[in-house]
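Subject: mismatched residue count in predicted assembly?

I count 499 residues in my input, but I want to confirm that the predicted structure covers every chain. Input:
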Amino acid sequence: MTWLWSNLDRVGELMLVHLALSVPAIILSFVISVPIGWIAHRYRWTRGALLSLCALLYAIPSLALFIALPVITGLGLRSPLNLVIALTLYGIAVIVRTATDAFDSVDRDIRQSATAVGYSAAGRFWAVELPLAGPVLLSGLRVVIVSTVSLATVGAVIGVPSLGSLFTDGFQRGIQAEIITGIVATIVLALVLDWLSVVLGRVLMPWSRAKPTGARAASAAPAAEADAA
Amino acid sequence: MIEFRDVTKRYPDGTVAVAGVDIVIEPHSTTVLVGSSGSGKTTLLRMINRMVDPTHGQVLIDGEDVATVDPVQLRRGIGYVMQNSGLLPHRKVIDNVATVPLLRGEKRRAAYDRALELLDTVGLDRSLADKYPSQLSGGQQQRVGVARGLAVDPNILLMDEPFGAVDPIVRSELQQELLRLQGELGKTVVFVTHDIDEAFLLGDQVVIMQQGGKISQAASPAEILANPADAFVADFVGAERGKRALHVTELDGRRLVVDGDGRPAGVLAS
Ligand SMILES: Nc1ncnc2c1ncn2[C@@H]1O[C@H](COP(=O)(O)OP(=O)(O)O)[C@@H](O)[C@H]1O
Ligand SMILES: [Mg+2]
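Triage response: the counts match. Full output below for your records.
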């Protein structure tokens, strides 16, 4: 504890750095995965290839990717941008399948009925398919949030500062409190972001929590219908 | 007027869903397409609003081939009601009803006002406007579906088994409501069902379809009952089972119509 109090500034600073690495990667992987998932959903023949490709992406050892990326991007080995790109790639690997499932989960009848009342293909995507895919997309986003925040710590090994620096530093100097602080701070960060995404989901998708009065409505239906008629 | 001219639909997998159909649908009347599952009713219906395009033949609305009309614009001018309502689950009732007017660029205020009036029209309480579809009973959802179909005051209303998923009591109420509405509004209604009783109740013209998407008979209910075109039709309408062999009997000075099983079907109007 004394270690934490005397190093509060540094921990806070690393938390911000960690956020700056993981939040862009989370947003980027989400924004890139949604259209890929939609394509895999819409054009069945692309599905196998797209999903295998993404699974393959995930199989690349992270350390190897962190070291190979600078060669490909031409950025310096310690550039945080490399880490953001690598985290984005892993994020995509994690979420594309869920994004595909999300669009698959949209009821075919509802899609057809949207077409029947005169939505254009684009209008239907934004107004019907995307919002209805929302709950499943959110579940995918939550996994990406946790996995990205956790994976970002690996950057410390190649010298990109993050909360992971607390592990490496703690190991080298044998300060156990520092290691534990790093782990706890990473978990707290992941939980806070996860919580934020759930709140955002509630605000954007109030309908997903609308209590179906189904059971009650069904038994009361004949009476209600008689009233109405 | 809607006209099918020698219309065939063969799906890419080779299924012939509709084969060489000719029908004329008079304006301000109700035409019911009736047949067992897979007889091509939905396919036929969807060729009117171009959700399905025929592989042969033409569909004309007031003399204009629908193939020449932009499908999205066409659909925004035709009401469509389907089984399980097809309501958007993430939109409140009022937004569902106002969907098409808003798509057509109407002002929100005007579209909402009209949507509320439409809830009255279909016999729903205005307090339901702010609910989500999942919070309504099946029958209420179907009424919202009908209200949505009427929202742009279309000349044509397409209904695909709209009352197929509700229980018999509610169903019968919805049928009566539709008859009342149609009496007031006089739309050109094309209605799909697999229930011959529903077809006879609602249809000015009843089109009986059989497997392979062929029409067995298209005529008024009375004509079909009196002169079934073939054995298939006779069997389908139940005439051969004596179910519809109605006869008149007198009870307490009133003339009752009784069916083949001796059950009273109604009182003969004098
Ligand atoms: N998109 C499609 N692709 C291939 N076959 C189809 C398609 N839609 C319908 N069918 C087939 O066409 C036939 C008629 O279907 P449909 O018009 O839905 O009949 P109904 O509404 O009378 O049940 C059925 O055999 C059905 O399997
Ligand atoms: Mg059908």
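The first helix of chain A runs from residue 2 to 6. Marking this ticket as 'not a bug'.
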